[in-house]
Amino acid sequence: xxxxxxxxxxxxxxxxxxxxxxxxxxxxxxxxxxxxxxxxxxxxxxxxxx
Length: 50
Known about the structure:
- The structure is a single chain.
- The chain is mainly alpha-helical.
- It has one domain (2-49).
- The protein is built from 3 helices and no strands.
- It has helices at 2-7, 10-37, 40-46.
- The longest helix has 28 residues, at 10-37.
- The relative contact order is 0.08.
């Protein structure tokens, strides 16, 4: 992992971080959508794991 960090330029690191953040946003949106589709009882059982 250390060698990978050395090879990446600052611009590349920023681009990677942006991609990761966008991916996380898309993922959380999908999770939110799927949770809103589930009945409240299922939602309550799932909460501790989120």
